[in-house]
Amino acid sequence: MGVFERYLTLWVALCIVAGVVLGQAMPAVFRAIGGATVAEVNLPVAVLIWLMIIPMLLKIDLAALGQVKEHWRGIAVTVGINWLVKPFSMALLGWIFISHLFRPFLPADQIDSYIAGLILLAAAPCTAMVFVWSNLVEGEPHFTLSQVALNDSIMVIAFAPIVALLLGLSSITVPWNTLLLSVLLYIVVPVIVAQLWRRALLARGGQEALQMTLARLGPLSLSALLLTLVILFGLQGEQIIRQPLVIGLLAVPILIQVYFNSSLAYLLNRALGVEWCIAGPSALIGASNFFELAVATAIALFGFQSGAALATVVGVLVEVPVMLSVVHIVRRSRGWYEHRAA
After folding, report:
1. What whole-number distance in Å separates Cα of residue 5 and Cα of residue 9?
2. Mapped to the 3 state alphabet, what secondary structure does 98-110 carry?
3. Which of 219, 236, 224, 167 lies closest to 21 in space, CA to CA?
4. Alpha helices in the chain (DSSP H)
5. Contacts of 273 (CB under 8 A, 6+ apart)
6. How many CB atoms lie within 10 A of CB 47?
């Protein structure tokens, strides 16, 4: 990795601080940005996500997607972690930490709401940011795209029943407009734009033109990630400042969940003999969350000032730094992972 990528954790920390400070200093500006939404999807953030993931999608030749059947074991591991392990492990962690261990330190009337927010966070696999994490671990791009597309398809069917089951509700109102628009914005549109751009580059200058464009877009992609953080934490800075203890306590089960699920996926892939370039993104997809959907659903179900909404915001706070640490672990462990007994 280059110098910029190597110190990405530092830049992330600085952007989080900058976002909180700027959000307090210029609240009107951030309210205007936060208000630019359609079906609870923030459009400025959507544009930044395009800038993040389109450079990654430029690397993908859709004609080669047929090769993904060779990676069925990695896909099976990721689907199992996302839908059979993660939501239920988070419900268990919420029960252990929020209902019991941390109960004396939390507002009694918000305990159930906090747990609901954690479950909402875990019930939807990440859609957009995983392209960034996969790129940082040199993941197989066709596998990543196919896995995300499969998760989105499952999410449309399984999200509401799983959340309803774990929250103990007979029915749940899911903001379907948010879900479908997010899939359109974060998957369909970027894939179309990237493929049209890729074909134009190859037609004009071949692989050389494509590689030169990718080299120029690399810093732009990471810069968009950092600016996204400034906006997110500018919008949520007031809650973070007002309730620092609650933020720290809610972060504990989220951190445990991320490391548990990423480790489980990584080890299962190794046990099954899956290539490292598949196991890396599999572990990261298995651990990350679709926080845009989680935040929107929490607000729709419980209200903007609810404990559920705050818990999903803590997921945003934790997501980038902890996923970068998982990226670091995956990269540093490549030699161990690829070691095979004679």
Report:
1. 8
2. HHHHCHHHCCHHH
3. 236
4. 3-6, 8-25, 27-34, 43-57, 72-80, 86-96, 111-122, 130-136, 141-167, 176-183, 189-242, 244-271, 276-287, 291-302, 307-332, 334-338
5. 73
6. 14
Taking a C-beta distance cutoff of 8 angstroms, is the pair 163, 127 a contact?
no
CA distances from 14 to 22, 51, 126, 227, 292 (A): 12, 20, 24, 11, 22
Burial code (b: 16+ CB inside 10 Å, e: under 16) for 184-219 equals ebbbeebbeebbebbeebeeeeeeeebeebbeebbe
- Cβ burial, residue 295 (10 Å; 0-12/13-18/19+): buried
Tokens of 205: 């200058």
Using CA of residue 31, residue 34, residue 35, residue 36, what is the dihedral sign?
positive
DSSP secondary structure string, 120-141?
HHHSSB-SSTHHHHHHHTT--H
The HSE-up count of residue 43 (CA atoms within 13 Å, CB side) is 7
Given a contact cutoff of 8 angstroms between Cβ atoms, the answer to whether 312 and 283 are in contact is no
CA atoms within 13 A on the CB side of 339: 4
- Residues 98 and 177 sit within 8 Å (Cβ to Cβ): no
A 10 A CB-CB count for 336 gives 9
Q: What angle do CA 274, 6, 145 make, to 5 degrees?
A: 40
Instruction: Per-residue pLDDT tens, the chain, 342 aa: give them.
Output: 556 666 666 787 788 889 889 989 998 998 888 888 776 667 887 788 788 778 877 877 777 667 667 788 999 999 999 999 999 999 999 999 998 999 999 888 888 889 988 998 888 787 667 888 888 888 888 888 888 778 777 877 787 788 878 877 534 555 666 666 766 777 678 888 888 999 999 999 898 999 899 888 877 877 887 888 788 778 777 777 887 888 899 999 999 999 999 999 999 999 999 999 999 999 998 888 877 677 767 766 776 667 887 888 788 778 778 888 999 999 999 999 988 533
